[in-house]
Amino acid sequence: MTTPLFLLRCIQLGISIRDLDLLTIGLVNDMFVEHQNDDYDYPELASQEQMDKF
C-alpha cells in the first residue's frame, strides 16, 4: 500500500492525522475492510436458536 492510498483510506474512514498517532497501519486496514463489509447484504443470517446451538 502506498502512502497516498493509506491517507485516502484514512479520509474515507474519517480518521484525522492526530488520530493516526494511536492507530497502526494494520488497524486502519482492518477498519477499512470492515467498513466495506457494512454494506454487504448477507443472503442468510443465523437465527438466535442456531446461535444458541453453536
Roughly how many Å is the radius of gyration?
A: 16 Å
Mean pLDDT: 92
Reported for the largest beta sheet, the result is: none
In terms of per-residue confidence, which ranges show pLDDT below 50 for 5 or more consecutive residues?
none
Q: Secondary-structure element order, as H and E?
A: HHH
Helix content: 55-70%
Share of residues in strands: under 5%
Global structural class = mainly alpha
Q: What's the total count of β strands?
A: 0
The general outline is: elongated
Q: Figure out the total of helices.
A: 3
Q: Could you give the distance between the termini?
A: 38 Å
Notes on the structure:
The chain is mainly alpha-helical and 54 residues long. The chain is built from three helices and no strands. Helix 1 (3-13) crosses helix 2. 0% of the residues are buried. The model has no long low-confidence stretch (mean pLDDT 92).
